[in-house]
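Handout for the seminar on molecular recognition.
Each group receives one record of this type.
Step one: identify the two inputs.
Step two: read the structure output and locate the region that could contact NDP.
Step three: write two sentences on what you found, then compare them with the reference statements printed after the record.
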Amino acid sequence: MAGKPVFIGSEEIERLVRDSELVPVLERALANFSSEDGGGVVQPIRSTVPVAKYKGFLGVMPAYSAEDDALVTKIVRFYQTTSSSASSHHATVLLFDPSNGVLKAVMDGAEITERRTAAVSAIATKYLKRQNLDVLCILGAGPEAVSHYRIFTQMFPFKQVKVWSRTRERVEKFVRTVQGPVQVCTSAKEAVLGADVVITVTMAMEPILCGEWVKPGAHVNAVGACRPDWRELDDVLMKSAVLYVDSREAAVRESGDVILSGAEIFAELGEVVKGTKPAVNERTTVFKSLGMAIEDTVTAKLVYDCWELKNKPKSKHKQTAEVD
Ligand code: NDP
């Protein structure tokens, strides 16, 4: 008979998996996803149900990775909120035994989403950055801004981090949470000027990042605006930069920045990781991230494997030795 599924909460996920373990797992998944033969990844485009009455959306994101033998679905809810304390996103991840479909684990999906999204932006930056990485700019100050701050300051040698959000309370909360050096800016323009890497992690529906502010050759990770009529980046930036996406299929269906600007997609990030498309480091680059179910799948599998290792019953031999 199937055992009861385990629950793995956010704090435990944080303790179990380090970013240094997660990054190579995600790089492999991105490369598999963008392989000509599909790399053993089965991932339908996400289904999203608008809940117009409450300005919300419910999304379902299933995927299977043959290489990891991992079968997962994420259920994500995102609601436009006016409160600085409430997060706009909630998620639950379900991990199944792929051999029989039995549910093995339920996990905090917000933690998994924040960690994998920031790690994928860091991978894009690793491949698409120019030589010098002195100044990082983060537009937005919610949970995604925090997870991006953490991995970017660990992985890259930035000398300065500038952050901007519309409200003071939100930025103050961000500064208290990250407990690291940050320069708070009073406008998005002030934060962007001179930055080598810009990250947009807002719930904006209109552009908050203008191409004319962006330093030539900088790299931009555009993480918000996951609806076909939402924008974070203006047309100047979208049309002048070399554009990378996580999934071409999703970008032309879900990204307002891509659809409404008419910008041409140069490559998927996984193609760059795999080496089938180049990283154009001498020009301004944009990585438009929408988030993929396969990223949740391999992250959840890594979390579960680490959990299992930690909670594995001790061998009979060892137990006997301890009793003796
Ligand atoms: P939060 O809602 O917690 O934070 C949102 C931030 O956006 C806050 O700084 C808020 O500022 C700002 N904001 C809200 N509305 C606007 C607006 N109209 N114009 C400008 N700024 C605004 O979100 P998260 O940190 O959880 O997520 C950030 C973004 O990342 C979202 O768009 C989300 O959909 C996206 N996302 C993308 C993923 C991916 O894989 N690509 C995965 C998960 C999330 P203030 O409160 O000061 O107004």
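Reference statements: The mean pLDDT is 94. The CA atoms of residues 30 and 205 lie 27 Å apart.
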